[in-house]
Amino acid sequence: MAGTALAPAKGRGKPSVLRGHRSRIALVNAVPVTVFLLVLFVYPIIGVLSLSLKGASGGFTLHWYTDALSGANLSVLMSTLRISAETAVLSLLIGFVLAHAIARMRPVFAALAMLIVVVPHFISALVRTYGWIILLGEHGILNTALTSLHIPGAPFSLLYNETGVVIGTTSVMLPYTVLVLQGVMRGVDGRLLAAAAGFGASRLTIFRRIYLPLVAPGIGTAGLLSFILCLGYYITPALMGGDHQTVVAALIDQQVMKQDQWNSAAAFGVILLLLTFAGLGILGLAKLRRTKAHARGSGS
After folding, report:
1. What single DSSP character describes residue 56?
2. Which domain, by its residues, includes 24?
3. Does one domain contain both 222 and 117?
4. What is the pLDDT of residues 154-170, one digit of tens each?
């Protein structure tokens, strides 16, 4: 009797021992990944932060941040934020139409369309940017065609200004937007839309009251992703913006390569990092609110 009474207790003890063993193995396996992240990400960030707070004499100072947030430097920062916002909005508008069209295609044609959207992204950004320069130049293909059609105002100034930068950055961010939105749109249950149509709802009502709320999380994610990626993007703004349209990434390059102002460049890098963290925080809070709202709806 005693032996049989003790047997279940031993059986109950084995799973806990096994879980503890697995936890120790997982902890050991996590050490290389943690060291990798610390060496390649955390340590450089700490180095940049300390450099941005170091004065000419080696002491603590906030001079580089006050300099970055004043005068011409502040103008460049605001211009970068504006270009990033414009790129995000334009990418969403074009990407929404493309993703919606692709989501309604048959799988074979949808895969082909996604291939057409994504493959240019694997071509060198330098090559794509020079392609846009050839296309949008004063004597480029687009302006030549518009001039031959006697369009009023042609040829248009589409390069070395904010317009050119936004066009270039939008073409770079568009694949990200389409990938995110198309994945969300594929997950929309068509039966909900069909049921709404069966109850007499118009297409506009279905889109506004059912479809748009269902894909809203993807819209927020895609827009914020485009905005964050555009904040620190360098190649396309530098080539298509020229000297007349500087962004923060190009300004950092000038300060490091031409002016040897590493402290000021580090301050701008920290500011961009904080803006990125702020965007990710907004995305996380929005996801948390959606989760809580879904939990309340399921509970009721």
Report:
1. T
2. 14-52
3. yes
4. 888 888 889 999 999 99
Q: Which residues pair with 60 in a beta bridge?
A: 54
Tens digits of residue pLDDT in 192-242: 888 988 888 888 999 999 999 899 989 999 999 999 999 989 989 988 987
* Helical packing angle, 71-103 and 248-257, nearest 10°: 130
Domain annotation covers residue 89: yes
DSSP-derived secondary structure letter, 60: B
Residue type, 33: V
261 and 210 both lie in a single domain: yes
Rounded to 5°, the CA angle 55-261-76 comes to: 110
Q: Tell me: pLDDT of 36 over 70.
A: yes
23 and 69 fall within a common domain? no
CA dist 78 and 22 (Å) reads 50
pLDDT in tens, 171-188: 999 999 999 999 899 888
Clarify whether residues 21 and 107 are in a common domain. Answer: no
Report how far apart, in Å, the C-alpha atoms of 234 and of each of 6, 247, 253, 255, 275 are.
69, 8, 9, 14, 16
φ, ψ at 141 (rounded to 5°):
-60, -45
Identify whether 155 is preceded by a cis peptide bond (ω within 30 of 0): yes
